[in-house]
User: Fold this.
Amino acid sequence: MRTMQTEYLIAVDEFCANNNIEISFISSLEQNGLIEVITIQETGFIGAGQLQQLEKFIRLYYELDINLEGIETITHLLRRIDLMQDEIILLKNKLRLYETEL
Amino acid sequence: MNFLDYYKILGLDKTATPKDIKSAYRKLARKYHPDLNPNDKDAKRNFQQINEANEVLSDPEKRKKYDQYGNDWKHAEEFEKAKQYQQQSSDYQRPGYSGTQAEGDFSEFFESLFGGSAGSSGNRQVKYRGHDFNAELHLDLLDAYKTHRQTLTVNRKNIRITIPAGIENGQTIKIPGHGGHGVNGGPNGDLYITFSVANHPDIKRLGNDLYTKADLDLYKAVLGGEITIDTLKGKVKLKVKPETQNGSRIKLKGMGFPVYKNEGHFGDLYVTYTIKIPTDLTEKQKELFKELSESEF
Assistant:
């Protein structure tokens, strides 16, 4: 994968060619609000910060046969799990406060 | 090293067709894939097993070898020698999942029977991202109070990290690129460090606030006075108001824990008073208390 002028952007067409995926897949992800594509002089780019998430979407779609609606639902639920895990940490730490009398 | 029943792992019997294997694998992979079960060690272990089972059963050659020698893996080497006289060719392409696929993801049993990881089996050159590493780092409350550097050894490699003051118990930070090596030029995985911050014997923490208790003798509680307490910032003198009640709490603003990644900002310190009743009173003292109790308030 080659980066453009700034090392933080990856050209969509090159990413697709290197990873053997259709550009339409990236477009669908963008239309569903799952990733953000930046267009500069008619060329689409993906921010490097989104790469890990994008690779995950590729695995879900191409390897686990999960469609876009499924990916959207999973992404939403995983975000909720993240929030709940943060809340669990907070509650566990609160509980520790009362484990020994102050 | 134990024999692994790959058919059982995928919930199949020995007569399973390639279609059955693919279907069983997909079903289980959707259940246990690490992307769908973040931070779940059990799911990760299960996924590695089903991945390994699929690796073997979906490859006709490996499946044949497994069926023939799986139960008696020690004979695998003899099998290999015999096979050297045969011309082998296969255009099979493994449909394995790349999510966490990397060297070291296969059991000893697998490596004994098939010699190394799946990546060496001559399949197409697919770039795999190295898998993520998870580590736990134990700190005490005083360690977490100050920004400090610490050297960790991960996979025989030393990594020097800066731990910002105010890190929370249970908090996880990501060190990009310090996970497993990528395969075929794929990027390295990441290292996730989860912090376990131990309780302090005298000071408790909740978020950025600290809680401690201070003993007060009865006379100081009644008449007021001054006491010195230990805090994480050192010793602090406190003025005690007259008629302070047992269990009452005061707040010392800005004397709590540093706010994570917000230098110069601190939470508050709450001090709860525990009033100690005098013991071993002399007869004279008892008389005085009796006199006091009979007086009108």
